[in-house]
Amino acid sequence: MSKIEWPSDEDKFEAIGYLAKPGVVDTIEATVPADKLKKFKDEYHNKYSIEFPYVTKAGSKFGYQFRIYLSDTEGCPDFLASQLDEKYKNRINDTSFIAELVNEYGFRFTKKTQNEEQIRNLVSAKGANQIRSFEKGFRVYSDFLYDLSGKIIEGDLPQPCIVQPKVAAKAKGRKPKNSGEMKSSFTREQLFKLGWLGETYIYKMLVIKDESLLQMLGINSSESYKIEWFNEGVQIGEEWEDKSVGQGCDIVVSLEDMDLYIEVKASKRKNGLFTMTSKEMQKMRDEAGKYYLIKIDFLERILKGESPEVMVFDSPYNVFFKPEKMKEATFKVEGDTNE
Fold it and tell me: What is the residue extent of each domain of the chain?
């Protein structure tokens, strides 16, 4: 699938807005036969970085070959998503569309971040309808968080779909470029908000005593308990200071004879990666047997009234923090001089 036939200008400029958002595009690359290299450099003067173009043998291709690799496809507009390379899942192959992006809208052949302001200004010069569609694509993550917040805070929520964690089989064969876990184009602030919405969902499930969740936490539904959620009262549209910092967890459930400590990690779709703070890991270790890590995937399903996937890890310190369980680790060392 190469040439994109856009259903409307609205679809096209929504896609351009999405592509202009920092973090969405990983690379815009150009491959050029040696006999067409001078022509390329003249035509795209100052529109490519030192990494490009890739030069191939003279006569090896009829013309230029341009590709866009996306680092994140989560918010990809529906029509553009349908045009992504079927094998790579995150690649745009339309050379003519990419040439248009570079020639008319300020994109560059590079692995670096695109100039968002320049792109917006060039689109704005096209007219009000174009910039309106552009902003729709560019705002996809902030609009998503706003809509999801309203649904979780005010709406009736679907029960969680409890799934059993499993170890992924090691993939064989050649992997497509940039395959595997996608990066996220959510800003750091937006990721905090997404996490707080995940906490809100679990808190509400605890309040209504969802049977499936309580069973995974070893709590009898007839048992009374108190819930302390450190970020209770969070409003996604307002400034909020994370009140779980330094606590080592997000929620404490106080039973008659003991406390349970719950840490929540949430993703818009499915992402097996998450981070833990030092305080969380220490609490996880010190409260082994009473500490639970809850991983929520597909939070976006809530917008359709569908259940997100929820994995509950009992004693997660023993599950994750062993050398054989770690993909990699980063260590900091310091030393004193002998002086």
Answer: 9-138, 152-168+177-325
